[in-house]
Amino acid sequence: MSVEFHCPSCGKKQFSYEPRERRYEKVIKSCKSCGKEYLDPRSHELAAEGIPADAFSVTPYLLMLVVGGLIGWRGWYLFGRHQLGTPSEISWLLPSVFLIMGVVCVIASIVGIIRIKTGSKQKQFERLMQESRMRLKDTDYAGKLQALGYALPREYTIGQEDSGNEG
Ligand SMILES: [Zn+2]
């Protein structure tokens, strides 16, 4: 189920998004209509929110592998079999769609598992974390985030001038 996001200032629709969608990029965006800045609900600062706990879990990929395998197997099984209510000229269509969907799921899940196991996903998150730290060190950006109500860790908050390095 996708959700519509509207500008908090003028109410103009900005985009539709899946609530599960997570982007690791600048959180502040400008309204296409009124130009005012808002917090993009899709976007997250890794340096403020941390790496999601399930980022390196293989379970969702294993699930996708099994489901993809079943769908693909079903497609394979349906080839050459009579399907009720389907004209014979297009009887290859459904099995082909199943088979392709299944194969795509299987490949995607294997690639996902390999990226976790080889540490390549870890490296990607480290790079994203570094980019996020650089963004938050920009006091102008951090100040705007705070003003818009985004919770920042103490080391990035603006206003309290203690340069201590605790934490
Ligand atoms: Zn607006």
Describe this protein with a few key phrases.
single chain, 167 residues, mainly alpha, 2 domains, two-stranded antiparallel sheet, 5 helices, 4 strands, 9% strand, elongated
Q: What's a quick, concise take on this entry?
A:
The chain is mainly α and 167 residues long.
Structural class: mainly alpha
Shape: elongated
Helical fraction equals 40-55%
**What molecules are bound to this protein?**
zinc ion
Q: Could you characterize what this model shows?
A:
This protein has 167 residues and is mainly alpha-helical. The chain folds into two domains: 81 residues, no CATH class; 62 residues. It is built from five helices and four strands, in the order ββββααααα. The strands form two sheets. The protein has a two-stranded antiparallel sheet. A two-stranded antiparallel ribbon has the order 3-4. β1 and β2 form a beta hairpin. α2 packs antiparallel against α3. The chain starts with a strand and ends in a 20-residue tail after the last helix.
